[in-house]
């Protein structure tokens, strides 16, 4: 159809040649002002054809030959519709010399109309059906053509221009070569603004999480002949480094060339497809998700069917990867697909046993972030049948949806219209509206947003009027906070909020929330003036005034500031003092602030002298504390602001608020806020700590009350345990007395109230209002509630059958725009599927209290599947290339048992195991790849990758004789020290399994007899396999004996093939502590005897203590002189607050054959008065020697004089020095007081590095100064200095990084 339309267009054009062919084509420019000497001299109604070619490379630096690359070539037509309108058309694209397919034809279909004035792009206009990836490539072509110079004569200009990369400072260079002018453009992308979609995405990449962008820059070369660009070459480079100092990193390099071929008077054929309704867009990279693909539904249904069928019994190793694939498909499918798939699942379309698939699908919906998923989440939340964990998941999903659509906002209306929505859900939905409005200008004119605002506003007007209805107050608090999250308020509802603030009979918390509802709204002069007046009016309560002030100050102009300062200066009453102190400290902090966000207010207050006649005692008066600093040279900073607000007549703050911010790359991020608001706390504290308070009584009385309450609380717990075992429901609490009741007594004041809120990135995630009936915590009630819950849980075990599967998915997706419009993608996706199956007929009450006759069953089967995938590289939709990392973890276990008791001391238990239990199954790989859309993935492993792998694949038979089980392991991983080319290479595998030797083995049968006395406990256990025949049998004995200063534990096993046992003796004597173990293990071919003993002997008194530690080991039943393996000795000497500590240690005999070491330490410590913190004051001895295989490590410390120390350490392998460290420290002063430490540290690893470090801790100076140099480079590696100097008048901070 498109081809026929193009031919018809050209035919008509040939007939009516006299009529301008661009007359009926819609234009993009809104104005066209061309100078008399334009830089570009393109002719109107002509088409200029260019060859557009390029290639992109992704290198893994540090690995030879590790690169994946792609080349492309196409024809680009620039059709000039008017002097200021240019249409960019793409024709016959090829990728690696392969002609285009149906995917590339999408790029050829629609031209992009560019509004360009003398080389400067104003904006672009695209067809509504143009897909995002194609649009960005054409924006890249427009960016290559852009030239923002006023004229082609001056060089070295730094011009800020907007292109597909962002709004960037651009350094222009001009080389006039007569008939040809060469223009260079250079950008450092780290200085660009508008580079990412939202503010929340800006700091992440540059803060080294999840992938750090170390460098990002582009360079363009434009050759202009007679006003026509004949050759434009642009290269773009990005370096992604895992961390500072890593020598292996990703370097992504891309170059594109636009070369002039010819011109013609005919339009490009695709001009016929421009259409009548173009969408105006900026030249910035378009972050919107690609167009929905109807064809993806087939793949989605296949994946859902595979999940349903493969998880009927239990989840498998691929379950997490499959579910991750389903989530990716649903993001690309049309919005209504999510609802349709859920209906099909519930109809059993994919499999009849669909409950497990339904649970996994409902969890997955929380990670899709598309409009269809929002509709399902809202329906599920309103149904009230969502489990708590999924409720939290859906709330988080609404908060964190990155790019909500208008359809998603439409789906929120049902939630806001609900009569009793969850407050936290309402906050999350409002947060999504805020995200939508932040990304879409004029959102307040969209119908769904208007309707939501009307619903919220109507509720608030009604609820603020119902001041005596507690239910209305709680609802008003939730709706006001939701309105604050949304940040969209029109004039009508602004006035309604003001009326709510001014309503004196309303609860203060409601009025404060009404003021804070303006926190994300756009500035309105009328609102700012009213809030400023309230802040300056002493007739309002302190909290109302300060809440209004904090919102007004964000939008205040010079008149507002003058009015507030003038009025609060005149206040002298007590109520005014509370507010004026806070406002004045806040204004003073603005004057001294260094952050860019407060620069406007700082300028307005520059010549203002604020009054200082207010109290600075923040323990009694309201104040604002600002601990923040911004380093303009680094573009970074951080701050913590604290609001302390007192109400008149109270000595406890009525409000505490904390706000943590960070500045990265010049962008301020509000990381988090927390608020605490108190009501009715003062009377409690007065009775506790006041003149007649409880804590004014004697310490002996308080201690006695604590002991009595602790004893009775303990008795209460014992009683509850006994009641639980007897399964009685009536509990008598009259015998219990409460410590806190003694503290608080009886009070008639208003019940205390606590209000809290938490905000993250400017959005409120949580708030709560807690009010207690009384002034004490009822310990008995807490105990009762705990044991009631425990009893209910134990009762549930009598008949319980749980099969639940849950899903968790984390997805990070960052697109770094390049000058060519093809993004550099940084993605990380992790998916986990967990299944938990429990079947129980367990009467735990009877099992614990009566061993006579009972029959119990319990089965548990947990499984986990985890999949991780990361990608760094270019993704143009047509071709994906870069570094990919994949990993998976799988775990599947299970056990079931029947328990029978009889005769009061006998237990029979039958245990069943699955044929195979996978304790751990890990697979991972990293490789370079290239994949054309619709084709299979091509892995690229460079020839330089040479792997030396560690392989273990075996099964141990140690459990076979007694249990018929074998433990198998499979390890196939690269040797980190001998392999070349890491992290690239073959797949790494680590597996550990427990398997039955004979699959006919069903399980185990155990019969136990218990004997119990005051001094001993013994269990005789007869263990046998239930199948096959003849069964394997074993006799197990467990014993415990206790004496006055010792106890013994004994465990033995006897079967027809093995026998053995272990005896452990513990001695706890005042002068001696020891533990001894004796092991005997006998089979047909082996007899193993081992005895080991660790003893500690102590001697001395309170002023001097000596400890001797010895370790003995013997291959026989007795110890000999050669059995001593190591000996340590420690001596403590106490002299008041001074402690001398000496320790030595050596090894000997058999241990010395494997490892030879000795050490010695002698130090002096002093304890600080009052807090008793140990401070090191002297090192008399510090030596260490270790010889292990080919490695030799030596170190020692020597003291020279009173203030100089020298420390030396060496590491050698096979008599070759591997590492050396020499340090010299000069200490002036004492460590326990003020001191200066000057150190020179020389480190040698191949090359020598010398670090000079000075540490100051003095009355006038505190900080650190560091300078690191290399032996062959005296210019230095790094210099770092942080010093704070103090005088009586001021404190000065100096920070230098070089």
UniProtKB/TrEMBL annotation:
Residues 1-18 form the signal peptide. Pfam families: Vit_open_b-sht (PF09172), Vitellogenin_N (PF01347). Keywords: Glycoprotein, Signal. Gene3D superfamilies: Lipovitellin, beta-sheet shell regions, chain A (2.30.230.10), Lipovitellin-phosvitin complex, chain A, domain 4 (2.20.80.10), Lipovitellin. Chain A, domain 3 (2.20.50.20), Vitellinogen, superhelical (1.25.10.20). It comes from the Eukaryota. One of its GO terms (molecular function) is lipid transporter activity. This is Vitellogenin domain-containing protein.
């Amino acid at each position: 159809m498109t081809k026929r339309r193009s031919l018809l267009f050209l035919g008509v054009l040939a007939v009516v040649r006299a009529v301008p062919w661009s007359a009926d084509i819609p234009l993009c420019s809104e104005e066209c002002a061309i100078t008399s000497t334009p830089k570009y001299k393109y002719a109107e109604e002509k088409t200029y054809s260019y060859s557009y070619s390029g290639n992109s490379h992704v290198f893994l630096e540090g690995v030879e030959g590790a690169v994946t690359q792609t080349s492309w070539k196409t024809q680009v037509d620039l059709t000039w519709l008017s002097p200021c309108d240019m249409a960019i058309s793409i024709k016959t694209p090829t990728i690696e010399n392969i002609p285009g397919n149906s995917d590339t034809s999408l790029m050829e279909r629609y031209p992009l109309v560019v509004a360009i004035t003398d080389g400067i792009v104003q904006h672009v206009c695209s067809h509504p059906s143009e897909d995002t990836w194609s649009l960005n490539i054409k924006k890249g072509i427009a960016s290559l053509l852009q030239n923002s110079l006023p004229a082609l004569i001056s060089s070295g200009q730094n011009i800020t221009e907007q292109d597909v990369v962002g709004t960037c400072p651009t350094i222009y260079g001009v080389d006039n070569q007569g008939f040809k002018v060469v223009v260079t453009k250079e950008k450092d992308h780290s200085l660009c603004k508008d580079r990412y979609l939202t503010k929340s995405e800006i700091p992440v990449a540059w803060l080294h999480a999840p992938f750090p962008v170390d460098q990002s820059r582009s360079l363009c070369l434009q050759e202009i002949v007679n006003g026509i660009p004949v050759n434009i070459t642009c290269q773009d480079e990005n370096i992604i480094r895992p961390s500072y100092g890593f020598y292996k990193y990703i370097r992504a390099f891309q170059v594109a060339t636009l070369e002039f071929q010819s011109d013609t008077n005919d339009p490009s054929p695709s001009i016929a497809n421009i259409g009548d309704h173009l969408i105006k867009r900026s030249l910035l990279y378009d972050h919107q998700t690609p167009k929905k693909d109807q064809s993806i539904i087939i793949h989605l249904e296949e994946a859902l069917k595979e999940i349903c069928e493969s998880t009927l019994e239990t989840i498998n190793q691929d379950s997490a990867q499959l579910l991750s694939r389903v989530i990716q498909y649903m993001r690309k499918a049309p919005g209504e697909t999510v609802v349709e798939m859920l209906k099909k699942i519930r109809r059993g379309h994919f499999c009849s046993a669909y409950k497990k698939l339904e649970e996994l699908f409902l969890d997955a919906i929380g990670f899709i972030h598309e409009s269809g998923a929002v509709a399902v989440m809202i329906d599920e939340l309103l149904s009230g049948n969502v489990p708590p964990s999924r409720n939290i998941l859906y709330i988080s999903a609404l908060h964190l949806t990155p790019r909500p659509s208008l359809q998603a906002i439409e789906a929120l209306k049902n939630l806001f219209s609900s009569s009793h929505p969850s407050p936290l859900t309402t906050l999350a939905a409002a947060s999504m509206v805020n995200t939508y409005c932040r990304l879409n200008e004029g959102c307040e004119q969209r119908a769904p947003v208007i309707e939501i605002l009307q619903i919220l506003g109507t509720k608030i007007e009604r609820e603020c009027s119902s001041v005596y209805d507690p239910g209305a107050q709680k609802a008003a608090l939730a709706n006001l906070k939701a309105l604050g999250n949304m940040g969209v308020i029109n004039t009508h509802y602004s006035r309604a909020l003001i009326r709510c603030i001014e309503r004196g009979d309303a609860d203060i918390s409601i009025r404060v929330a009404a003021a804070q509802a303006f926190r994300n709204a756009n500035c309105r002069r009328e609102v700012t003036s009213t809030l400023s007046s309230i802040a300056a009016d002493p007739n309002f309560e302190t909290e109302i005034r300060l809440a209004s002030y904090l919102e007004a100050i964000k939008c205040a102009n010079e008149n507002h500031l003058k009015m507030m300062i003038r009025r609060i200066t005149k206040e002298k009453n007590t109520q005014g003092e509370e507010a004026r102190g806070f406002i004045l400290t806040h204004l003073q902090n603005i004057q001294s602030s260094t952050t860019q966000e407060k620069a406007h207010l700082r300028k307005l207050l520059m010549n203002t002298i604020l009054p200082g006649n207010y109290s600075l005692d923040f323990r009694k008066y309201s104040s604002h504390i600002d601990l923040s600093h911004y380093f303009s040279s680094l573009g970074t900073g951080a701050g913590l602001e604290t609001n302390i607000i007192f109400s008149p007549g109270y000595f406890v703050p009525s409000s505490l608020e904390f706000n943590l911010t960070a500045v990265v790359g010049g962008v301020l991020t509000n990381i988090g806020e927390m608020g605490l608001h108190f009501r009715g706390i003062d009377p409690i504290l007065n009775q506790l700590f006041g003149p007649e308070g409880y804590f004014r009584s004697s310490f002996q009385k308080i201690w006695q009350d604590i002991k009595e309450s602790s004893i009775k609380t303990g008795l209460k717990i014992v009683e509850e345990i006994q009641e639980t075992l007897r399964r009685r429901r009536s509990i008598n609490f009259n015998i219990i007395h409460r410590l806190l009741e003694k503290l608080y007594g009886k009070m008639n004041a208003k019940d205390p109230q606590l209000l809290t809120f938490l905000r993250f990135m400017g959005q409120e995630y949580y708030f709560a209002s807690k009010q207690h009936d009384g002034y004490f915590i009822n310990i008995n009630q807490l105990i009762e509630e705990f044991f009631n819950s425990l009893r209910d849980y134990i009762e549930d075990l009598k008949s319980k059958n749980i099969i639940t599967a849950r899903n968790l998915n984390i997805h990070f997706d960052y697109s770094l725009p390049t000058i060519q419009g093809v993004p550099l993608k940084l993605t990380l996706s992790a998916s986990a599927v967990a299944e938990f199956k429990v079947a129980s007929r367990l009467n735990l009450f009877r099992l614990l209290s009566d061993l006579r006759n009972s029959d119990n069953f319990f089965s548990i089967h947990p499984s986990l599947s985890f999949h991780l995938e990361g990608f760094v590289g270019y993704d143009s939709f047509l071709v994906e290339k870069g570094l990919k990392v994949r990993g998976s973890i799988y775990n599947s276990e299970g056990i079931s048992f029947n328990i029978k008791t009889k005769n009061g001391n006998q237990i029979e238990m039958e245990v069943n195991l699955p044929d195979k239990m996978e304790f751990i199954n890990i697979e991972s790989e990293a490789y370079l790849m290239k994949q054309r859309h619709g084709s299979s993935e091509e892995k690229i492993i460079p020839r330089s990758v040479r792997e030396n792998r560690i392989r273990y694949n075996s099964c141990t038979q140690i459990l076979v004789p007694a249990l018929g089980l074998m433990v198998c392991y499979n390890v196939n991983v690269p040797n980190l020290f001998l392999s070349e080319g890491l992290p690239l290479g073959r797949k790494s595998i680590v597996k550990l399994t427990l398997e039955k030797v004979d699959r006919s083995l069903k399980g185990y049968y155990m019969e136990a007899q218990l004997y119990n006395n005051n001094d001993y406990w013994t269990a005789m256990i007869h263990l046998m396999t239930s199948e096959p025949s003849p069964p394997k049998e074993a006799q197990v004995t467990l014993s415990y004996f206790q004496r006055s200063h010792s106890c013994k534990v004994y465990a033995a096993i006897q079967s027809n093939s093995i026998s053995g046992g272990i005896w452990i003796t513990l001695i706890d004597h005042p002068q001696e502590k020891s533990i001894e173990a004796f092991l005997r293990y006998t089979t047909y071919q082996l007899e193993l005897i081992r005895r080991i003993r660790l003893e500690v002997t102590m001697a001395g008194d309170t002023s001097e203590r000596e400890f001797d530690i010895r370790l003995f080991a013997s291959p026989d039943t007795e110890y000999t002189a050669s059995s001593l393996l190591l000996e340590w000795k420690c001596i403590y000497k106490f002299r008041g607050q001074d402690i001398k500590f000496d320790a030595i240690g050596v090894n000997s005999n058999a241990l010395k054959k494997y490892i030879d070491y000795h050490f010695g330490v002698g130090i002096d410590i002093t304890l600080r008065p009052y807090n008793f913190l140990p401070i090191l004051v002297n090192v008399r001895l510090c030596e260490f020697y270790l010889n292990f295989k080919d490695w030799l490590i030596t170190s020692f410390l020597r003291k020279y004089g009173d203030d100089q120390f020298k420390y030396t350490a060496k590491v050698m392998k096979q008599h070759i020095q591997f590492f050396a460290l020499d340090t010299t420290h000069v200490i002036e002063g004492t460590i326990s007081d003020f001191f200066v430490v000057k150190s020179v540290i020389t480190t040698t690893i191949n090359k020598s590095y010398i670090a000079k470090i000075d540490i100051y801790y003095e009355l006038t100076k505190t900080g650190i100064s560091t300078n690191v140099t290399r032996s062959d480079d005296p210019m230095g590696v790094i210099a770092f200095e942080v010093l704070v100097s103090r005088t009586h008048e001021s404190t000065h901070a100096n920070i230098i990084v070089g």
